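Look at one such:
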Amino acid sequence: MSERSLISLAVVESRRRRQPALAPDDRRAALIAATIPLLHEHGTEVSTRQIAHAAGVAEGTIFGVFDNKTQLVVCSMVQALDPQPTLDAIAAIDPAADLRARLTQAAEIVHARFAENAHLMHAARKLIFTSDAHPEAAKQMALTRGDLLAAVTVLIEPDAARLRIPAAKAARLLMLHCGASTFGPFGGDEAFSGDELASLLLDGILQSHTGEQVTC
């Protein structure tokens, strides 16, 4: 056997080792898992070569299960922005805690999600919501926002009778503030405080007549 043949066999064997046979759905899942960290690092400019290298496959393998790079990036964004870990964290807040404590924890959880994924959310808004090319992804992202709002609303509702506004509106205000402090032009570098946001929502910005906070 010639040296060239030996080299070719070695290359084939190497590819076999790094590219195990997977069902299409499993291959898609593996490529998405490899793409998500690269999106955090490189944004949507990540190349298919980088993705293939991270996944341990040939670059052409990507196009065996995705129509193009954009489709892979969109699917990866939707997966990366899966709200379930955030929903689980909100659901784990002690319902027996007072309203102020519950709001403080919820604000910290929601803000952490926004801060961690700010660049992906910006990219998703540009790539998914500004065109009609990805209707299913846009629908999924809209459902995500609704699920987060509903989770915070449920957290507030036990004390709804004590509020001047509906629990859903209070939840929306919390979400808006967390979003603005992350994405807005006035967010700045100041550390976010869930306690301050809870106080703003519950107490406003005026001193009470006694100069004391109202306990909620």
Residues 84-203 form one domain. Residues 137 and 152 are 23 Å apart (CA to CA).
